[in-house]
Write a structure and sequence with these properties.
heterodimer, A: about 110 residues, 11 strands, B: about 110 residues, mainly beta, 6-stranded mixed beta sheet, 5-stranded antiparallel beta sheet
């Protein structure tokens, strides 16, 4: 039973570029949440997708956008990258109807913006 | 005031020691509470959920005080492998998980 997978594992970009990160949820899960974790901080919620729609969004600018596909996998896109976007980006999956808020995290994508 | 506050540490303790971490949360509507463990440069992993009655899993004991909006984690007989960052997490129904900054623990031989 595959857990949550993310790609790529590491990425280096320069300011102003755009990046796409990918996530496949755990088998049986239909909901994907994305988090940004800066060094020395806890993960911060970016947004959550269910049934291919953004259901909730945290305090992140419109440069951060996402998508969910029919197979429940998801992408996070960040436009016009800033140095401050350097962080570990975590994807977490869960089941929308389970009533259990427990989320399972992928290994993350470490993004460095130069 | 931050939604979830934790002492960042680091807590440096010898093997075999007992160590306790505390966490406070500001949203009185919070319904679910968790401790996650995060190893260096890895993803967070659920350590245990926290219930009103308190719960224990081996050497780990979690307590919740709703009146004081306070959560604790006690680790007995610390092992070297317990060295990690411990994240306090709260949730209010369908809202996203809200994480504290984490408390760093180093268990020393």
């Amino acid at each position: 039973d595959a857990g949550v997978t993310q790609s790529p594992t590491h990425l280096i970009k320069t300011r102003g570029q755009q990046v796409t990160l990918r996530c496949s949820p755990k088998s049986g899960h239909d909901t994907v949440s994305w988090y940004q974790q800066a060094l020395g901080q806890g993960p911060q919620f970016i947004f959550q997708y269910y049934e291919e729609e953004e259901r909730q969004r945290g305090n992140f600018p419109d440069r951060f956008s996402g998508h969910q596909f029919p197979n429940y996998s998801s992408e996070l896109n960040v436009n016009a990258l800033l140095l401050g976007d350097s962080a570990l980006y975590l994807c977490a999956s869960s089941r929308w109807t389970s009533g259990n808020p427990e989320q399972f995290f992928g290994p993350g994508t470490r993004l460095t913006v130069l | 005031r931050k939604e979830v506050e934790q002492d960042p540490g680091p807590f440096n303790v010898p093997e075999g020691a007992t160590v306790a971490f505390n966490c406070t949360y500001s949203n009185s509507a919070s319904q679910s509470f968790f401790w996650y463990r995060q190893d260096c440069r890895k993803e967070p992993k659920l350590l245990m959920s926290v219930y009103s009655s308190g719960n224990e899993d081996g050497r780990f004991t979690a307590q919740l005080n709703r009146a004081s909006q306070y959560i604790s984690l006690l680790i007995r007989d610390s092992k070297l492998s317990d060295s990690a960052t411990y994240l306090c997490v709260v949730n209010s129904g369908n809202t996203p998980l809200v994480f504290g900054k984490g408390t760093r623990l180093s268990v020393i031989a």
